Amino acid sequence: MNVAGAIAIAMVLDAVFGEPGWLWSRMRHPAVLIGNIISWLDRQLNTDSQRKLRGVLTVIILIALGILLSLLLRILPATVFIETILAAILLAHKSLTAHVADVATALRLSLDKGRKSVAKIVGRDTRDMDEPAVVRGAIESAAENLSDGVIAPVFWFLIAGFPGMLIYKIINTADSMIGYKNQRYEQFGWAAARLDDVLNWVPARMTAALIALAHLRPGIGLSVARDARLHRSPNAGWPEAAMAICLNISLAGPRSYDGEVRDFPYVHPDGESDLGPADIDRAVTALWKAWVLTLVFVLMLAVV
Q1: Distant-in-sequence, close-in-space partners of 92: CB < 8 Å, separation ≥ 6
Q2: DSSP state, 233?
Q3: Terminal Cα distance for the chain, rounded
Q4: 94 and 239 in contact (C-beta within 8 Å)?
Q5: What band does 24 get if pLDDT is binned at 50, 70 and 90?
Q6: By three-state DSSP, how is residue 192 classified?
Q7: CB neighbours of residue 169 within 10 Å
Q8: How far apart are CA 23 and CA 25, in angstroms?
Q9: Which whole-number Å values give the CA distances from 258 to 103, 114, 127, 211, in the listed order?
């Protein structure tokens, strides 16, 4: 079985089974183990004035661990089977769609429940959000995590097999944990954040293209590129802009972090701004459309 066939099976397994609670309540998820290693390195190395250099060393150690684990898997029997199962575990499409859909369900019950639900998937302050802000947060998370949690892992599996996917997930997790621009992590997390930007450069733009093609809007490339530049991230703006344009909604805009309001520009500012739970439903449908299109492309590669 070639790499395309393996990742196609992994995509289907993830879409069907997701992250079963009965399993991960009894053992640690690989992502949790990766996070524990990163936390340990943070405690051990993020301690003095050489934080940038120590951050580079942290990234090197993490990559080395990813390569070592991949080599160990190669000496086990049924390597392809094990790597396919692990790839399914590291994908996050079903869990992503479930978490985003949960926000719509909660919002239909009350604004307060919607705020609490979206707080599980965004890093901004949610206490004072109005309904459109809750919806924007959920849809922005949907678009960004489609790239980070699905398309990028699939892309790197196709490029470099399971080792490529594993190293991507390690770096992406490191960026989410230490890639912040604050006093503690601006230097120490620099290498993880920059490498994550590099690894996501192609997948983010592929995700935007997949969203556009899934909505039969292949001609929106220039509009997506224009609006993507309004985003503070060099990559996240692409899938968010594609989602905003295809759904004709306005995303991003001002939001609060740690009590400080930041005046970010809107992505696709001409789109609808009075958003509700139905718009989250449309975003979840968009996620599945993009997933199906991705699976079709992967299956085409598998039979070539």
Answers
A1: 14, 19, 145, 149, 150
A2: S
A3: 12
A4: no
A5: low
A6: helix
A7: 23
A8: 5
A9: 22, 19, 11, 32
Query: What are the pLDDT digits (tens) for 112-157?
Result: 999 999 999 988 888 888 999 999 999 999 999 999 999 999 999 9
Q: Are β-strands 255-257 and 260-262 bridged in parallel, bridged antiparallel, or unpaired?
A: antiparallel
260 sits in which H/E element? strand 260-262
Over the range 32-46, which residues count as b (16 or more CB within 10 Å of their CB) and which as e? eebbebbeebbeebb
Provide the token pair at 228.
């993507």
Give the 3-state secondary structure of the chain: CCHHHHHHHHHHHHHHHCCCHHHHCCCCCHHHHHHHHHHHHHHHHCCCCCHHHHHHHHHHHHHHHHHHHHHHHHCCCCHHHHHHHHHHHHCCHHHHHHHHHHHHHHHHHCHHHHHHHHCCCCCCCCCCCCHHHHHHHHHHHHHHHHHHHHHHHHHHHHHHHHHHHHHHHHHHHHHHHHCCCCCCCCCCCHHHHHHHHHHHHHHHHHHHHHHHHHCCCHHHHHHHHHHHCCCCCCCCHHHHHHHHHHHCECEECCEEECCEEECCCEECCCCECCCCHHHHHHHHHHHHHHHHHHHHHHHHHHHC
Residue 260: beta bridge partners? Answer: 257
Q: What type of residue sits at position 46?
A: N
- At 15, list the tokens: 């879409």
